């Protein structure tokens, strides 16, 4: 697509418009969308009309916009994510019943944790993860488990790109990641929610690298944490074997 006067292509602008929606901003006015996407208002109006026409955006009764169902349909055609979810689901259901807390499945994507499935549980502790939501790598047990079991260039690349923000929270992240690899799982107390502890176990490929991660959140100080970790480890091994098969 042709570039604009500012040098960005029309595709760049379309992606920024779609990317402007997040968990905190599921609906936006056209004006707010233009500001968040850094696209001129007149151009935003025109692109919004086209995106609504294709079902990629939906217009609410009061005039605000949200992501359209067509995006969900397209995303669910992704064979890699679909296959992983389908294989993992029976194991996730078992852990969900045993631990009695919400459980989620996530992957490492664009230097963030991307949640691709979650099973909720009535009465479970507050859990900030949501399907299709993104979470910070170095502030979550999911991200730490994924990073610890990523190939060496992936780990080092992340550390180089995010060294400043990492140092505000971690004294020696490389040492922490080595400890996670030794234990086979990661736990974090209160980094996202002060009253909870996250526990995560990687789903490994044949080379010992993380394909995904299984995680639960339990009340902080809960005596059920060791049992939750054991259940996650059993489930992750089962998913790994099923994916290889």
From TrEMBL:
SMART domains: HTH_ICLR. Residues 70-245 form the IclR-ED domain. PROSITE patterns: HTH_ICLR (PS51077), ICLR_ED (PS51078). GO terms for biological process: negative regulation of DNA-templated transcription. The keyword Hydrolase does not apply. Residues 8-69 form the HTH iclR-type domain. The keyword DNA repair does not apply. It holds the Pfam family HTH_IclR. Keywords: DNA-binding, Transcription, Transcription regulation. GO terms for molecular function: DNA binding; DNA-binding transcription factor activity. This is DNA-binding IclR family transcriptional regulator. It comes from Paeniglutamicibacter cryotolerans. The lineage of its organism: Bacteria, Bacillati, Actinomycetota, Actinomycetes, Micrococcales.
